[in-house]
Structures are given as structure tokens and as C-alpha cells.
């Protein structure tokens, strides 16, 4: 497997749409979970969530990266400044910023979602996406990138791993900076 990992711009939208499938990944979420307040998200049809993500691909800063194995889309990671995922920053979430950190700080980024094609899970794609996400964040001015993964899922291919596996982040050099709920560490990598 030789992956190509690229920012998802409008030119790559068809590949992301193929990856997510007609349901929109994670039961029609279209990676809106951290982008919208719960009431706003619940009021939206999956087509509206899809349109929201598609519109984000036209922004100057793409909403994430896609992994391609040849022409086949096999994985996605949402990597953005924290300000782009406002629900990630609310006071009641385990991913909320550390005391003193400003979620509107353009240098503080979040890796909030992964989606790996089910038949390709367990092949190291999340490791490759994470490495590329860190490089992408660094290249766009990030001083630090954070994640709030899960320590243990009921199974290795669980949909609950959409936030990523803590073991993958640990291997990439992320350190736990808070753990507000058992099994859901807030992890950070400071850019060198």
C-alpha cells in the first residue's frame, strides 16, 4: 500500500463523498459533530450536513485530509484550528481547552475526527493520516495540535474510534495534558 494524503479541496470532494458513502460516514454525520451545536446539528438533514462539509472544502484552509491508495479513497482526518470545531471547545466537553488557552488562537489546532474505510481498518492508515495531519497543521502555522482520543474501544474496528485511538497518538509523540473523563485523554503535541 502506497498512500497519497492530500488536503480535501473542492477538486477532491468527489473522493471524500465516495469514501463517506451515501450515508455520510458515522450515521450521516459528515463530520459535523464538532462543527455545530447539538441543537443545530439535530435540526439538519444529512444532506445539509453534507453541504456544510462540501462548502468547507472551498475555504482557504481545507477541513481535513484524505488518504488515497492509488485512486481509492481509504481514509480521512479532520484537522483544523480549534476555532473551526466550536463544539470541541465548550466547557462541558472533555476536549475543552486547557485553562489559559484561547480556542480562537490560530496556532492551536485540533485533530477531531477520523474515518477509515471499514475494509481497510487495522492497516496503519490512521497512523499515516495522523503524521500527515501534524505536518499539515505545522505547515499552516500551528504551534500545538491536540486530540481527545479514546483509550479503549469495545473492538478495534469500532465506530467509536472516530476520535482516534490514544495508542496511535502516543506513538506519534502526543502527551496527555488532561483527562477529564476516564479513557478520554486530551493529548497535545507541541511543534518543534
What does this structure look like?
It is a single chain. By secondary structure, the protein is an alpha+beta fold. The chain has one domain: Aminopeptidase (3-Layer(aba) Sandwich), CATH 3.40.630.30. Helix content is about 25%, strand content about 20%. The protein contains 5 helices and 7 strands, in the order βαααβββαβαββ. Strands 1-2-3-4-5-7-6 form a 7-stranded mixed beta sheet, sandwiched between helices. A hairpin with a 2-residue loop joins strand 2 and strand 3. It starts with a strand and ends with a strand. Keywords: Transferase.
Question: Topology of this protein?
Answer:
Blueprint: E1 3-7, H1 13-20, H2 38-43, H3 46-56, E2 64-69, E3 72-81, E4 108-116, H4 125-139, E5 144-147, H5 166-171, E6 175-178, E7 186-190
Uncertain regions: pLDDT < 50 for 5+ in a row? Answer: none
Number of helices: 5
Indicate the CATH architecture: 3-Layer(aba) Sandwich
Q: For the record, what CATH class applies? A: Alpha Beta
Tell me the span between the first and last alpha carbons.
29 Å
Strand order, main sheet: write it out. Answer: 1-2-3-4-5-7-6
Number of domains: 1
Major β-sheet profile: 7 strands, mixed
Radius of gyration: 15 Å
User: Tell me, what's the shape?
Assistant: globular
**Residue-averaged pLDDT:** 89
- Helical content band: 10-25%
Tally the beta strands.
7
Order of helices and strands: EHHHEEEHEHEE
Query: CATH homologous superfamily name?
Result: Gcn5-related N-acetyltransferase (GNAT)
Strand portion: 15-25%
**Which fold name is given in CATH as the topology?**
Aminopeptidase
Amino acid at each position: 500500500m502506497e498512500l497519497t494524503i492530500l488536503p480535501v479541496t473542492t477538486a477532491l470532494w468527489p473522493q471524500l463523498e465516495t469514501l463517506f458513502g451515501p450515508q455520510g460516514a458515522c450515521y450521516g454525520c459528515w463530520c459535523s459533530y464538532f462543527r455545530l451545536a447539538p441543537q443545530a446539528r439535530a435540526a439538519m438533514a444529512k444532506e445539509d450536513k453534507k453541504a456544510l462539509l462540501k462548502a468547507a472544502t472551498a475555504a482557504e484552509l481545507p477541513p481535513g485530509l484524505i488518504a488515497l491508495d492509488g485512486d481509492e479513497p481509504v481514509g480521512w482526518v479532520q484537522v483544523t484550528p480549534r476555532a473551526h470545531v466550536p463544539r470541541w471547545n465548550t466547557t462541558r466537553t472533555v476536549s475543552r481547552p486547557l485553562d489559559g488557552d484561547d480556542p480562537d488562537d490560530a496556532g492551536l489546532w485540533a485533530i477531531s475526527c477520523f474515518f477509515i474505510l471499514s475494509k481497510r481498518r487495522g492497516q496503519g492508515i490512521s497512523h499515516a493520516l495522523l503524521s500527515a495531519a501534524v505536518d499539515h497543521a505545522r505547515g499552516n502555522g500551528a504551534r500545538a495540535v491536540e486530540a481527545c482520543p479514546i483509550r479503549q474501544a469495545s473492538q478495534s474496528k469500532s465506530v467509536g474510534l472516530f476520535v482516534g485511538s490514544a495508542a496511535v497518538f502516543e506513538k506519534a509523540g502526543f502527551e496527555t495534558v488532561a483527562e477529564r473523563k476516564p479513557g478520554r485523554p486530551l493529548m497535545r503535541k507541541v511543534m518543534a
